[in-house]
Write a structure and sequence with these properties.
Helix 2 runs parallel beside helix 6, helix 4 crosses helix 5 and helix 5 packs parallel to helix 8. The chain is α+β, with helices and mostly antiparallel strands and 332 residues long. The termini are far apart. It binds adenosine-5'-diphosphate and magnesium ion. InterPro entries: PurM-like_C_dom (IPR010918), PurM-like_C_sf (IPR036676), PurM-like_N (IPR016188), PurM-like_N_sf (IPR036921), ThiL-like (IPR006283). One of its GO terms (biological process) is thiamine diphosphate biosynthetic process.
């Protein structure tokens, strides 16, 4: 096949190429000035955008399959944090040059994750420039159910899904590896941590399942302390956390030890786990609802009344621990 390099042939070849039956709620997809979609009368839309820029969010030699996966996953994670069901996305792709091998790998991985979550690519934009990927994702919300940051109340229990800190640890390992000239073999635990960084699993079903019972939620993209603080600020409350309850993976502890693992869990970014709060009276119902989801979750603390001086208090057992001087990732 003769490969063309103009914008329209790239779109046709790589992004208008889904082999899956399109969703019934897409009336008009790629090819016109806008896409047209349908929503039911009892639904609302949740909309989010995330951009990944070369050199800031990923190394320039990243496998395009990992890049495509992550660009979609971080957007689906935002929808999950609202309790929304992912439906459609658009893709703004800026490329320094037309590299057909790169594009083929990127697009295959892109449609793989879209197909897994039954999401349609409905449009986008293709431009030349420094490599960057910007995705807007649309999710469907039942009209009376949304999981926001502002609903946490004094006495609510604080939970997180999965384990924390693995992704930041995986990134540290990737950085270490780049600093070495020799190609040392990775242990199983190290491979696991790097995988958790490159392929975070958005908690899509989990988010929808807790939506009726949780009082607030956020996905952990900038680190537990930073993201929990967003819930606390929006809800005008404070929190106490139990350090000994933080879910740490055996792999993280094996590679970095407990102390460093705790730091990664509190302040490391890009876990894409959910942090959510639940009123005591809803805990039993929530646990019943979650028995079939197959995702671990852990209670790590409790919401307290507003405290302007100390938004988060840490304890190990009965002992108070000073809050580490850390901030989540902040671009400016
Ligand atoms: P316009 O100039 O009207 O904005 P374009 O010529 O940029 O439209 O794009 C043509 C069609 O291709 C549109 O439907 C647009 O949404 C779609 N499109 C462009 N780039 C991409 C992409 N990377 N992925 C998916 N669809 C795309
Ligand atoms: Mg147009």
């Amino acid at each position: 096949m003769v490969q063309q390099n103009n914008e329209f042939s790239i779109i046709r070849q790589y992004f208008n190429a889904s082999t899956r039956t399109p969703r019934k709620d897409v009336a008009l997809a790629i090819g016109d000035d806008c896409a047209i979609t349908e929503i039911k009368a009892n639904q609302r839309l949740a909309i989010t955008t995330d951009t990944l820029v070369e050199g800031i969010h990923f190394f320039s030699d990243i496998d395009p399959a990992d890049l495509a996966y992550k660009a979609v996953a971080v957007n689906l994670s935002d929808l999950a944090a609202m309790g929304a069901e992912p439906a459609w996305i658009s893709l703004a792709l800026t490329l320094p040059k037309v590299d057909h091998r790169w594009l083929a790998t990127f697009s295959r991985s892109f449609f793989e994750i879209l197909d897994h979550y039954n999401v349609d690519l409905i449009g986008g934009d293709t431009t030349k420039g420094p490599l960057s990927i910007s995705i807007t994702a649309h999710g469907l919300l039942p009209r009376d159910k949304a999981l926001c940051r502002h609903g946490a109340e004094k006495g609510d229990w604080i939970y997180v899904t999965g384990s924390l800190g693995d992704s930041a640890a995986g990134l540290a390992l990737l950085q270490q590896k780049r600093g070495q000239n020799t190609d040392t073999a990775l242990s199983q635990a190290e491979t696991y941590l790097i995988e958790r960084h490159l392929r975070p699993v958005p908690r899509v079903l989990f988010g929808q399942s807790i939506a009726p019972y949780a009082s607030a939620a956020i996905d952990i993209s900038d680190g537990l302390l930073a993201d929990l603080s967003h819930i606390l600020q929006r809800s005008a409350v404070s929190a106490s956390l139990k350090l000994d309850k933080l879910p740490l993976s055996p792999q993280l502890i094996a590679v970095f030890g407990v102390e460093k693992a705790e730091q990664f869990a509190l302040a490391g970014g890009e876990d894409y786990e959910l942090c959510f709060t639940v009123a005591d009276k809803n805990c039993a119902k929530l646990e019943r609802e979650l028995t079939h989801i197959g995702v671990d979750y852990t209670c790590i603390g409790q919401i307290r009344s507003q405290n302007a001086n100390k938004m988060i208090r840490l304890k190990r057992g009965a002992e108070k621990v000073a809050l580490p001087d850390v901030q989540g990732f902040e671009h400016f």
